[in-house]
Design a protein that fits this description.
alpha/beta; five-stranded parallel beta sheet; globular
Length: 145
Amino acid sequence: MNEGIGIEYASLPDKYMLIAEDDEDDVSLLRSFLIDLPEAPELLVINKGDKVISFFENLPGNRLPLLVLLDYNLPSVSGYEILIALAEDKKFLAVPKIIWSTSNSTHFETQCLAKGAFAYFVKPSNIHGFKTLVQKLQGILSHSK
């Protein structure tokens, strides 16, 4: 078991998406749209950056998520810092890492893309925006299989 976050690696689903997000409303909205996707991956939600780092530290290479969605402004360790940590281990290279943030800063976007983010999305402010985001995530998931 991974101490501190209560997840047993052996019990992880074969197809899952990791969402690193501390806003429960954002998670609920994402979940409500993702669940309707054909072949929807299960969702693993971790709400603090240090717990995300802890999760990945000993994650076996055969238990990798299909996609990682990181909130830029996670508590304790930011999504950007997580990108840097994941870039140091080659086993995570093929896993698409997406940053999403309330900021539309081109500086933040450029930084994240330079550190291995597949994409940078501004968090949607309405239901239509969440539907569009989930369509984009579905496209990324379908290409990463």
